[in-house]
User: What shape does this take?
Amino acid sequence: MKIGIGSTRAVLIFSDFVIKIPRVRVLRLFTRIIETNRNGSLKRKSQLYSKKNIFIAVVRYLIEGIKANRREYFYFQKNKEKEGLLPTTLLIFGLIEIQKKGNVLEESSFLWKRIFILLRRENLHKISSFKACNFCIFEKKLKILDYADEETFQLLERGVFVIMQKINSRYI
Ligand SMILES: Nc1ncnc2c1ncn2[C@@H]1O[C@H](COP(=O)(O)OP(=O)(O)OP(=O)(O)O)[C@@H](O)[C@H]1O
Ligand SMILES: [Mg+2]
Assistant: This one.
């Protein structure tokens, strides 16, 4: 078994499937509070999580990984027919998510370089979800393995699925 570390989830990687577990980053929370308090952006940053209450903001920050698991699972359930999604098969209370295992792309790979060119053409190359380690090959098709936020859903549907289809038909 290997371990993958994302910003919101830790991933246990087995030969056929992976288990995504939310990370509760208490230490990072404290360093963020100290940093943003020092540079005067604490209020603005906490309002990204809750406009009214800093305690609600703290709780929301700490449960980001649970929310990511839930969004990914339910997005897959609604969009099973979309070829570009790596299947997410089970969710237990947001705490355990099971997904198929894919072969993650390397940033230096030929395939990623082709994808990057097409993303850049659409001005999507700076979007944080569209990085090599969020894509993989599964059953001889290009798939996205990290689709856990609203912006990603929208951009996938607005053009990234089409880019992925092009890559599948041209290079895989
Ligand atoms: N289904 C999978 N198959 C193989 N490896 C995986 C899979 N899911 C995740 N990984 C590995 O674990 C890493 C972290 O997973 P993921 O991107 O889903 O977590 P995250 O917390 O959403 O990450 P991010 O930092 O991109 O927000 C991935 O970059 C990848 O290397
Ligand atoms: Mg990721």
User: Anything to note?
Assistant: Residues 4, 6-9, 11, 13, 18, 20, 68, 86, 99, 101-102, 104, 133-134, 136, 145-146, 148 surround adenosine-5'-triphosphate (ligand 1) (CB under 6 Å). The chain has two domains: 2-22+64-171, 26-62.
